[in-house]
Design brief:
CATH architecture of the largest domain in chain B: Orthogonal Bundle
Order of helices and strands of chain B: HHHHHHHHHHH
Largest sheet of chain B: none
CATH superfamily of the largest domain in chain B: RNA polymerase sigma factor, region 2, helix turn helix motif
Strand content of chain A: 15-25%
Oligomer: heterodimer
Number of domains of chain A: 1
CATH topology of chain A: Jelly Rolls
Shape of chain A: elongated
Strand order of the largest sheet of chain A: 1-2-3-10-5-8
Largest interface: A-B, 70 and 90 residues
Number of strands of chain A: 11
Distance between the termini of chain B: 33 Å
Strand content of chain B: under 5%
């Protein structure tokens, strides 16, 4: 798999720092599962965190802390095992397998517009972002839209193109809020994407705007 | 200790795992993993706990919560030491990621596990680099120095992100600069650090 489009380095730094909201972190980890190059980059950005930790000044610890730690060790017999390899699900990278145990073929799609269907995926209550799957029928276009906030789109299956190029499985589109685009699915196969958004998409076209509540986007 | 030294292979000694280097944090983790050596954990505690506490306090944690998180971090080091491989990165990098994951669990209670899944996958898929362990520590030292040499506006966004746990949008609000500027400063900082970070490869 040749991956041509990767996350912005600033996004990978936020992943290392641990500040991405849940849906965004999950899209990034799914891309990492598909992209060895980005896994290497994240090793490097993790190193920035390590260097900053080493550079921190010391804060005085309360007297009993070390004792408490060693008392906890004595009570603790657990040794962490590497988490068991996840049951592999065809077409579904590991970080998504928990959410999609039945793969990409058994999703309950909701019609959201001509040629476009979405399926909301669960994230925790505190999350300020939404995670969803989007399916664009082969050859169909997603209405032109800007973004009310950041958006990450990872292609899981099929491909689409827009003014930024062609995006196929493993490719990730990392768009700022001021980007507008109109993806068109390549012919031959439906395009299925994993999408994280932190705000409602703002569709430009007036017609589409009136349809937006219906779209559920 | 002497028994351990005798049991080591020449290659291990060359790579700096000997008792003579017992203060090197990655060999301390190795001793925790292989010998369940509480002395080694105590040495790691001494090196990292006061710094971890500083980092946790910066998140706005109370003194008690900060110390709880420090203790949890060191407990994870004890439990997960055998999953650490020094070829993958310096001890401080690994400990930073453990503290970060705990912080995320504590604060956000995610229903998904994006970090754990990637860690598992890496252990399965990626060969550790053949880079010398001592070099990893040197790289951290150089990065630490380079971070202080960044222009102040870049240093600020890096620290607010990695140390103060602020999302890009929060940094933008705090500094009163556009989101795009936050991101471009982070990119510039990474470009400056990149030659040092890529020494890893």
């Amino acid at each position: 798999m040749t991956i041509a489009h990767h996350p912005d380095i600033a996004t990978l730094m936020a992943f290392s720092a641990g500040t991405l909201d849940e849906a965004f972190a999950l899209v990034i980890s799914t891309h990492l599962a598909m992209c060895e190059g980005c896994r290497e980059v994240v090793h490097r950005t993790d190193l920035i965190g390590g260097a900053l930790l080493e550079a921190e000044p010391d804060t005085r610890l309360s007297a009993g802390l070390a004792d408490r730690l060693f008392a906890a060790l004595d009570d603790d017999v657990s040794v962490a095992q590497p988490a068991p390899a996840r049951r592999s699900v065809p077409d579904v990278p590991v970080p998504l397998a928990r959410l999609l145990p039945n793969g990409l073929d058994n999703i309950r799609w909701r019609f959201t517009g001509p040629g476009v269907a979405t399926a909301e995926l669960p994230v925790s209550k505190e999350s300020r972002s939404r995670l969803m799957l989007m399916r664009v029928a082969a050859g169909r276009r997603v209405p032109e839209h800007g973004h009310g906030g950041n958006e990450l789109t990872l292609i899981l299956k099929g491909a689409y193109h827009d003014r930024f190029g062609t995006f196929a499985a493993g490719d990730l589109a990392d768009h700022d809020e001021d980007v507008e685009h109109q993806p068109i699915a390549e012919p031959g196969e439906d395009c299925i994407c994993l999408v994280a958004v932190d705000a409602r998409l703002t569709f430009r076209s007036r017609l589409i705007r009136t349809l937006q509540p219906l779209f559920g986007l | 200790m002497a028994m351990y030294a005798l049991a080591m292979t020449d290659a291990q000694i060359e790579r700096g795992l000997g008792p003579a280097d017992s203060e090197d944090p990655s060999s301390l983790i190795r001793r925790v993993a292989e010998e369940r050596d509480k002395g080694a954990l105590a040495a790691l505690f001494k090196l990292f706990a006061p710094k971890l506490k500083t980092m946790m306090l910066r998140l706005g944690a109370s003194d008690a919560l900060a110390e709880d998180l420090v203790q949890e971090t060191l407990l994870s080091v004890w439990r997960k030491a055998h999953l650490y491989s020094p070829e993958r990165g310096a001890a401080s990098t690994w400990i930073f990621t453990i503290a970060r994951n705990l912080r995320i669990d504590q604060v956000r209670r995610l229903s998904n596990q994006p970090y754990q899944d990637i860690e598992t996958l890496e252990l399965e898929l990626d060969a550790p680099s053949s880079f010398a362990i001592t070099a990893q520590q040197e790289i951290v030292g150089r990065v630490k120095k380079a971070l202080t040499a960044l222009p102040p506006d870049q240093q600020d966004v890096v620290r607010l992100s990695f140390v103060h746990d602020l999302a890009h949008a929060e940094i933008s609000t705090k500094l009163g600069i556009p989101l795009g500027t936050v991101k471009s400063r982070l990119r510039l900082a990474y470009d400056r650090l990149r030659p040092l970070l890529e020494d890893l490869q």
